[in-house]
Write a structure and sequence with these properties.
Shape: elongated
Largest sheet: 6 strands, antiparallel
Order of helices and strands: EEEEEEEEEEEEEE
Strand content: over 45%
Structural class: mainly beta
Mean pLDDT: 96
Radius of gyration: 17 Å
Strand order of the largest sheet: 7-8-9-1-14-13
Length: 160
């Protein structure tokens, strides 16, 4: 089993504490089979609330799937304690936001979507519906009377 870290990078404007919101947050990934190299075209998601038992009583994972090409059973598990917010201090640098424990799979792409949250850097104003599908998000902080935003969202995976 191998651990992969999803590193997040963005330009933050007057916001901090960018994070996935809730245990039902969907991490949309493209996953490569470690046995045959197959990468399905469709995005797949994993969440903390889903828990599937592994064959042979070896524990559980967030997702278990059989490769369509080679029929190998693979799994991926979100490591709950590794979920970390992206803060103003992390601006424009890569930071590991979450780690996945993979058996027979390797994450190769990530698509941020809805379900992120952030807060005003100076005011703490909560922004609970941040959608990063377009790789940019903007809003207005009424308390600070200034625009806020998350721009140029990008990512990479690293082995941990």
């Amino acid at each position: 089993m191998v651990k992969f870290g999803l590193q997040f990078k963005a330009t933050l404007e007057n916001v901090s504490n960018v994070r996935p919101l809730g245990e039902d947050f969907r991490w949309f990934l493209k996953l490569k089979c470690g046995n045959c190299g197959e990468i399905p075209d469709k995005w797949q998601y994993v969440t903390l609330v889903e828990n599937v038992p592994l064959k042979g009583g070896r524990g559980s994972a967030s997702m278990v799937q059989k490769c369509k090409l080679c029929a190998r059973e693979n799994s991926i598990d979100i490591l709950r304690d590794t979920i970390t917010p992206y803060n103003a201090a992390d601006n424009e640098t890569f930071k590991t936001m979450v780690q996945f424990e993979c058996r027979g799979l390797e994450p190769v792409d990530f698509q941020p979507q809805a379900g992120f949250a952030a807060e005003g850097a100076e005011t703490g104003t909560p922004f609970l519906e941040v959608n990063l599908l377009e790789k940019d998000w903007t809003d207005y902080d009424e308390k600070a009377k200034e625009s806020v935003g998350i721009y140029e969202v990008t990512h990479r995976f690293i082995k941990c």
